[in-house]
Amino acid sequence: MKSISARLGVLAPLLALAWLSACGGGDDHTIGLKNETAPYLVPLARAAVQVSAGWAHTCAVLADGSAACWGGNQFGQLGNGGQALVGCADGSAVCSNGPVAVSGATTWARVAGGFLFTCGTDAAGAAHCWGAGRRGQLGDGTQTTSNVPANVSGGLVFSALAAATGGDLACGLSAGALYCWGSGYYGQPGNGSVSQLAPVPYRVSPTQTFAALAAGEVHACALDGSGAAFCWGANHAGQVGDGTLVDRTLPVAALGGRSYTQIVAGLGHTCALDAGGAAYCWGAAGRIGRASASVADQATPGAVAGAQRFVQIAAGGWHTCGIDNAGQTWCWGDNSRAQFGDGTLASSQLPVRIAGLPAFTQITAGGGHTCGATAAGAVWCWGADTYGQSGRLL
Fold it and tell me: What's domain 49-312's architecture?
């Protein structure tokens, strides 16, 4: 498998080592690693209405409009203003094994977890971001870090929001116009450049309007009003879906001519659902649910194996999960951190139905963990828990 370092240079492995040393120790006898092979009910103060997994942290909007986050906090991505954290393994302030409140009196509508940052929109649609900001991913015109929500510049009203689980990019939809901000090293802000950051929102493809969006490690995608998929950014594994491995600085249409209703992006792979719930994926081998794609990356969309039909899908680091129309969870790709939730560490290139989970109405995938939410607002998480991102109290 390609690691995150394939597109983030030497920074990613250094960050990974820092994470392991800062909040290491676990119960699986692997140095610095902790996995939750069984789903764990996160002890939230109120029912969750929306949940989003970042790389090694998780956030949720609660029924009263407040937001809570848990997991890694190396750059303030929990947004709690540096207040005391819950149960961090070494007693430091770099992670929280239980939910902490996001600072401020904002009434939140949605949250989106990124690599080392988080973004959210309030009830009026204004966007705010917090955490690491060195690559402009907070969208406030600076390249500074903030441990409390910072206002995204421009005064835009967003109806949808996405943050790159494994990268430094955020995007939002405002009256159909697509805006992105953050890292530009592979063209992922969609502004025609590969050499600059976008520390404030930049409109992507001004002649187009879009209805859905997704942000991956170093690529992004969106659906237009007809459901056609467009992607841009890094394309080393074919994740743009245009039949090439050429990086794209502007949106290009994914091949196949299909109409989709949802689209998600992970580390080197992209997946989408059509109106009937059939899943299609493209990009890095082993994460796209196709038996014929066990070795070679696939640069064009192809159907995920099996007859299951999904109502929601989520792309994580090296794995993908979906909820079928009965609320059952299916996962495929890497399971070395127990991110399937089936009690094993056995990976599968084809979808595996995960028995014993509650019926979920939402699912979200992080770098090595997965969370699901029920209709009643209960949130369950499993997989990598080195930084408390699965929410298990010590």
Answer: 7 Propeller (2.130)
